[in-house]
Amino acid sequence: MVEPVPESIDFSQEEAKILEYWKKIDAFKTSLKLSKGKPRYTFYDGPPFATGLPHYGHILAGTIKDIVTRYAHQNGFHVERRFGWDTHGLPVEYEIDKSLGIKGPEDVMKMGIANYNAECRKIVMRYAEDWETIVNRMGRWIDFENDYKTLYPWFMESIWWVFKQLFEKGLVYRGFKVMPFSTACSTPLSNFESGQNYKEVVDPAVIVSFPLDDEPGVSILAWTTTPWTLPSNLALCVNAAMDYVRVKEKATEKVYIMMEARLSALFKSEEEYEILDRFKGETLKGKTYLPLFPYYANLKTSGSGAFRVLTDSYVTEESGTGIVHQAPYFGEDDYRVCLAAGIISRDQDMICPVDDGGRFILPVSDFAGQHVKDADKNIIKMLKDCGRLVNAGTIKHSYPFCWRSETPLIYRAVPSWFIRVEQMSQQLLDNNQKTYWVPDFVKEKRFGNWLRDARDWAVSRNRYWGTPIPIWTSEDGEEVVCVGSIAELKELTGIELTDLHRENVDGLTIPSKIAGRPPLRRVSEVFDCWFESGSMPYAQVHYPFENRKEFEDCFPADFIAEGIDQTRGWFYTLLVLSTALFNKPPFKNLIVNGLVLASDGQKMSKKKKNYPDPMLVVNKFGADALRLYLINSPVVRAENLRFKEEGVRDIIKDVFLPWYNAYRFFVQNLERLEREDGIKFVYEEESSNLSTNIMDRWIISYTQSLLLFVHQEMAAYRLYTVVPRLVRFVDYLTNWYVRMNRKRLKGDGGKDDCHHALQTLFSVLFSMIRVMAPFTPFLTELMYRNLRHLVANQKAGTTESVHFLSTPESKKHLIDTKIENAVSRMQVVIELGRVLRDRRTLPIKYPLPEVIVILREQESLDELRTMEKYILEELNVRALKLTTDKDSFGVSLRAEPDHRIGARLKGQFKAVMAAIKTLTDEQLQKFLADGQLDVLGNVMGPEDLRLFYQFTGDRAVELAQQYETQAEKDVLVLLNVVQDQSMKDEGLAREAINLVQKLRKEAHVTPSDAVTVYYEIVPPTGYVPDVVNTFSAYIEAAIKVPWRAVATNKSSAKVLINKSQKLQGADLVLTIQEGFTADWAKTGAPPAKKAHLSNPAPIGRGKPSVPFVNLCLDGLKPGYDIVGNYGTVLLCNPAGASMISFERLMNEVARVFGLHGRSYMLTNSGVTLDSTADLSKLDGTTLTVVPVVAADATAQTPSIDGSTCRFVHVKIDGKMGTVLLENPSGYKLFDSSNDMERKIRVMFETSKKLSADEKKMLPVTFSDGLDGLHAKTLYLI
């Protein structure tokens, strides 16, 4: 049974209840059981560290993963989702080093690796429970019980297998490499790790002299921002092709050599120096110089040729002196250049006087024990004291910091185990082309460029808590054994291990194959944790030791997703290893998200507290709101998002509350249908598609178009197109379909129409919750659990959760593009009309005479004509005119230049501006069609011109006062803003209705509650009470409960609310009491009273010049103080014009008799008319106007020959038209001849004068009253 839906909702609290429900039915596991046997969809989850709590980046990536995998499940796949943990490496060790005060390797050796790793093991899952809680709270379905951790022995064994495969392929070697090095963590970092954390810093910048051996008194000048590398200087480097100068400093008479283009680095003006000689850098090659420090001076005579000038093209004219000092073990280019020149060799000992903690060691005795960064100032002082410092300053530049310790990195040569990546660069590029990335530019540019410049990968770390590198070597390095499994290790060592960490592996030896040689010992390094995470596709299933077929059948993975920072991290390591192992890509599809930043654009920082705690946001707004906020943003296009809490709040306000209210409105009216009409509602899919109502057909068509779009775009993993369309659909459903069909859904159009509308709304809601389920899993579950009871013939076992259902397929035969186009244009017209009302501050409650819509194509007008009823209602106008004839209204385009083009045009601006202002309407229409226009040789686009519509001709001033104009694309709207008194009165009545409805909401009174509204107006006399009393029947019909003057209140029923509110200067005191008044029928409406005419039917007054119908009220009373039960509607005007639509006819009926807001039908000889009626065949007939609830009215419609109302014929431009002088019969429309002339001119859209004579001006007078004018012909001349 469907439960009533409360008026308000706390989304976060409801989500907590849904979590309990999922737990109760074991939802995730149940969904996996239901999909067992279906095609597999493989997903890899990148493992996070559990040493910190999840942040918005984790939540974003997790949401993307959850959406895609839920969607795959709901589209016929079996999707296993296992959570993984990265448990080794620097993040863990750094925490232990901080807590235990460990400064370097010596401290670890003192406490023992076993004890150190035991401490690491203790904290490795410190926040695991919090992670599981937060991930589950976000609605993500993933398996924590069957997780993988990189510390599991079976995971580590697969890593050994991966490494041995690479080893046997010759892809592993040991060597030195200058790498980014964290002195705080005592370990090198990979290039992609070092690129994660650049900061703006101020460093010293010094120019130092290097006296030449063969030119006494001449020094080469080198520049550096790392003075601490100078004690290790072994060479200088210049660019052979560039110009250098020998220059004398006038102030000191000293002679220096530097690049000519860089003289400004030392001298402020040309007067400070004299150039003695110019030459190419090649001239300096081979020159030797005096070492800066004595520590390695012996190398000058050792045969290596240290302390000489080298050449290389990496030296540029962009900074420094154009001469770079070379410390080969502290710079990549330095190492390469010095190695090529023979100053160092690959097999020699490193010249690296800096330990793993970044402190100087011997032979750099002057600074031994000092951290290199701290030593900078002391080195500069020593250089100054010995006369080698030429200039000292500072430089602000971007510098890499350790992502874990937040300390500056240095570049330092370290011995390491490498994977040969450079040689497989083309294979990496080829395999990358086999993958699909969203967005594509990340794959082609950022990632593709990284692959093209791929370097050998240093996979070893001189650390402790990690997977040991399984290499055992002899002391001389001649014998090397790589172990690929626990079984192989047992075979070689005789010992079987159940844990592969260092404390268990380091002591094991492998006997040498050479007799008498000592056993082989394991190398000390462990794997970089990136090697472990890159191995996760294999290690998570213990491949190849277990699950071999299962893995090989599902590799590569169908889908992965992470942030853009992983392009040089996990995405890269996955591709390198899969290429090296199988020459395959590791995945097929990838979504890359951008970074979530603080609201000020800075990186989110716990220290700065510049972002709200994620769980506080979730507890405040709910997980669905946070999910939708994140994925409906640029971040899913790999752009950055500035997180703003108010953005999450807006999702509640703009999406969830309207959606929830539409759902609540459906349930309310479902209950009314069953209670009042006795109809048991059961959703039958086919019957929901039978409605002929155009708005029903539109929302059904639009829903099917949406489903088609979602399936197409999700197949392409384009969340950034899908989510905005889903959000827009909520707006279309709530702000267009539901709002424009409220009366139908409430039953105002009769039982059948209400049932059709409710079937349609349910169909859309039910499709919507299924397609939205992956995106907003909680709210969709909440709605589904209630709505499921209305669905017939559901598949057994799937009704417990919306997440057990399939995403609905699009029914393409229900897509009607013409209706969608018509509604789209209608929306444009309505939105433009609202803009125009706002411009004149005309509230929508106040009716206006007319809206004119001008389009270029007749087909578009015909489509829009079907929406006439809705345009009239939404804009609250009495008439709609559709035309393609813009010129007849004197409307033309004019243009002005956008001020921003001034910078582009510069001197031409004035001439171009003048030319733009003279552009004709024809030229501007062509500009709109083409999208560009040439003005004095300058191409103008849409952003360069501002277009305005203006009235021209003799009536320009008059029309500008009468109409407001606005255009969008091909739609031009003219809104008549001149109100008559009846419109102002009706607007005031609508204001009163609005005050009543707001008060009902404040008192929590639902539409089905039996209440009476009593009113009192202070002061009791005047304009406001007159209008409210006159419109009482209208107000009562709108609020659908008794509306009574407080003076008539004799009830002692409970008062629910009493409040005084302002209404146009008067006080409207409203009281809502429980129960209906005695005269109010049980059906919730006053008893229908036959309104058969007490006066005899009027005699026909002759036939107008145009087709017409007469109207006769039966069972209804006219409203708005209108008197008369007979009226006339002209079906076209002038003769030969297009027939009005049925919707227009119904609106004319409401206008004639004041029936706005009331339900009625038209019958012809007892046959009910609808929109299929051919109005041209009704000419001259009399139609009966009856209430919907009294469709069985039996009054005999009188036969009337001719119009029941008096009229005049009007001739204009050879065409005959008709103007009614009264309507209804006896209700005079004009007060004077001037009033009549003004309204006739508006009606026929002309500035011509009204005359009683065709050839000369003869004023029309009212001297003989209406009878004197009736049936006469007047002329517009």
TrEMBL record:
<dbReference type="InterPro" id="IPR002301">
    <property type="entry name" value="Ile-tRNA-ligase"/>
</dbReference>
<dbReference type="InterPro" id="IPR023586">
    <property type="entry name" value="Ile-tRNA-ligase_type2"/>
</dbReference>
<dbReference type="Pfam" id="PF23567">
    <property type="entry name" value="Ubiquitin_IARS1"/>
</dbReference>
<dbReference type="InterPro" id="IPR002300">
    <property type="entry name" value="aa-tRNA-synth_Ia"/>
</dbReference>
<dbReference type="Pfam" id="PF19302">
    <property type="entry name" value="DUF5915"/>
</dbReference>
<keyword id="KW-0436">Ligase</keyword>
<dbReference type="Pfam" id="PF00133">
    <property type="entry name" value="tRNA-synt_1"/>
</dbReference>
<keyword id="KW-0547">Nucleotide-binding</keyword>
<dbReference type="InterPro" id="IPR001412">
    <property type="entry name" value="aa-tRNA-synth_I_CS"/>
</dbReference>
<dbReference type="InterPro" id="IPR033709">
    <property type="entry name" value="Anticodon_Ile_ABEc"/>
</dbReference>
<dbReference type="InterPro" id="IPR014729">
    <property type="entry name" value="Rossmann-like_a/b/a_fold"/>
</dbReference>
<feature type="domain" description="Methionyl/Valyl/Leucyl/Isoleucyl-tRNA synthetase anticodon-binding">
    <location>
        <begin position="696"/>
        <end position="850"/>
    </location>
</feature>
<feature type="domain" description="Aminoacyl-tRNA synthetase class Ia">
    <location>
        <begin position="17"/>
        <end position="641"/>
    </location>
</feature>
<feature type="domain" description="Isoleucine--tRNA ligase cytoplasmic ubiquitin-like">
    <location>
        <begin position="1104"/>
        <end position="1186"/>
    </location>
</feature>
<dbReference type="Pfam" id="PF08264">
    <property type="entry name" value="Anticodon_1"/>
</dbReference>
<keyword id="KW-0067">ATP-binding</keyword>
<dbReference type="InterPro" id="IPR009080">
    <property type="entry name" value="tRNAsynth_Ia_anticodon-bd"/>
</dbReference>
<protein>
    <recommendedName>
        <fullName>isoleucine--tRNA ligase</fullName>
        <ecNumber>6.1.1.5</ecNumber>
    </recommendedName>
</protein>
<comment type="similarity">
    <text>Belongs to the class-I aminoacyl-tRNA synthetase family.</text>
</comment>
<dbReference type="InterPro" id="IPR013155">
    <property type="entry name" value="M/V/L/I-tRNA-synth_anticd-bd"/>
</dbReference>
<dbReference type="InterPro" id="IPR009008">
    <property type="entry name" value="Val/Leu/Ile-tRNA-synth_edit"/>
</dbReference>
<dbReference type="InterPro" id="IPR057033">
    <property type="entry name" value="Ubiquitin_IARS1"/>
</dbReference>
<keyword id="KW-0030">Aminoacyl-tRNA synthetase</keyword>
<keyword id="KW-0648">Protein biosynthesis</keyword>
